[in-house]
Amino acid sequence: MACELCSVASGEVLWQDARCRVIRVADEHYPAFCRVVWHAHVAEMTDLEDQDRVHLMAVVWATERVLRDAMQPAKINLASFGNMVPHVHWHVIPRFADDRHFPQSVWGTPQRDGVAHAGPSSAALKAALVDILGGGAQTASLR
Fold first, then answer.
1. Neighbours of 64 (CB within 10 A)
2. Among 7, 19, 88, 107, which one has the highest count of C-beta atoms within 10 angstroms of its own C-beta?
3. Which pairing describes strands 12-16 and 20-24: parallel, antiparallel, or unpaired?
4. How far is CA 57 from CA 77, 100, 101, 107, 111, in A?
5. CA dihedral for 7, 3, 54, 13, sign (positive or negative)
6. CATH class label, 4-133
7. Who contacts 69 (Cβ-Cβ below 8 Å, separation ≥6)?
8. Rounded CA gap, 93 and 76, in Å?
């Protein structure tokens, strides 16, 4: 069975280096929903070497910081499930009291029509991620 996170970018790439990438997920209800994806196919965080776990979490935290600074959400949800796609990745989702699912998970039953809070432009997110993480390095392929 092919892994969709190994074979495709799975969204607009905002930042990447040799180990991971930050993508913007196409979600009309959550336009600033980001995902941090480890390039190599590993199923669990404990499959990573210590320094790789530290690096991945630094990218997750930088993504959270960028979204908090840009949007001032009520909360940021961080999630790493991998039940459907057993490939290490983190969801970074700005949440607002008037969004579609609040206070429930974005994967739960909608609570209302909700407001889709406009996220910052991709160019602004890219620049902010580079400011925190550095320029990164383009990977030749996504293993």
1. 19
2. 88
3. antiparallel
4. 14, 28, 26, 23, 31
5. positive
6. alpha beta
7. 128
8. 5
